[in-house]
Structure formats: C-alpha cells, structure tokens
Amino acid sequence: QSYCHRLQHDMYFLTSTSRLNEQVVDKIVLQLNRVYPQILTNEEAEKFRNPKASLHTRLSDLLKHLQKKGDRHCQEFYRALQINAEQLFNDLPSRKILKTPDPTEIDTDKEQYMLNDRGPVFFLACFSVAAGLALFWYCCNSETQVIGRARRILGFSPIIIGRHVRNICMLYLEDIPRN
C-alpha cells in the first residue's frame, strides 16, 4: 500500500478534533520544510503555519498538498508524524491494518502450541500403550519362531532396558512354550 493511499485513509482520523494540536502541526511543517530532502518550500510552510486559518483547514490543506506531490512526500510526513507524535502515529488506522496478520496465513507459534498442548506425559502414555500392544501381539502369536525372535531381540537389550527387566522378560518367554 502506497503512502499516498495510507494518507488518504488516515486523513479523517488526523483531521478529527483534538488529535493534533497546533504545536505538533507546526513541528511537522517545520520538519518537512527544514530536513533533506526539502518537502515544503518556505512559502508553503508559511501558508500551512498561518495562525489566521483554523487548524483543521491548515491540516486538511497540508495533507491534500502532500498527496498531490507524491509518495515520497507522504512518506516524509509519516516520518515527521512518528517523530513528533509517536502515540498518534501508532494509533493510525493504516498502522492497525498493517499490524493485523493475514487471516489465511498460518501462525506457526500457535500451530506449534496446538500440536503440543498435551505435553510429554501424554506422548509417553500413548507410546507405552502402542508399544505394549505391539509386544502383546508379537508374543501372543502361535508361531514358535516368534518366541525365538523375541528372545534374540531381548538378548541384545541390556543397553535399552535394565538387566532385571530383561531377565524377567526372558523367564516369561521361556515359560510360554512350557504352557
């Protein structure tokens, strides 16, 4: 969105009563007159600082004048507004539109939270149930080769599980063929 369109969108907000006082408008006009690149000539600055005209009229004329000059001039106005009235600059309607996220865009932080909202205990419980069911299905198969394979797998498992647990599992596997 160009600065001219933003300024047109913000014009009503800026010109409404008690948003900008005379001192702030004078500071903005002086900054636009004195900084490089010079946005307002000396004659234009005097015209927009004329105390005989109402503040609303001067501000409306200034904003229209800047819109006619182009995008660079409007950008410099926003910079001057930010320097001299930062709170008002942050409250501009065009700034609020820029700050709001795109509704079609996925918020990765929120998505990450939504996927992990149950925590590690839930993950361990689900994993334990799945591993238990797999081991039960594997051991309850009627083929004798399954028990031999399970014995080989559990024989290499002292690294993963403790010796006492491994010994209990091996005894259980040895008792299954006897029954």
From TrEMBL:
Subcellular location: Endoplasmic reticulum membrane; Mitochondrion membrane
Segments crossing the lipid bilayer: 120-138
Keywords: Disulfide bond, Endoplasmic reticulum, Membrane, Mitochondrion, Transmembrane, Transmembrane helix
Record domain CARD: where: 38-96
InterPro entries the UniProt entry points to: CARD (IPR001315), CARD19 (IPR043574), CARD_BinCARD (IPR042146), DEATH-like_dom_sf (IPR011029)
Subunit structure of this chain's protein: Associates with BCL10 by CARD-CARD interaction.
PANTHER family in the cross-refs: CASPASE RECRUITMENT DOMAIN-CONTAINING PROTEIN 19
The name this protein goes by in its record: Caspase recruitment domain-containing protein 19
Biological source species: Eulacestoma nigropectus
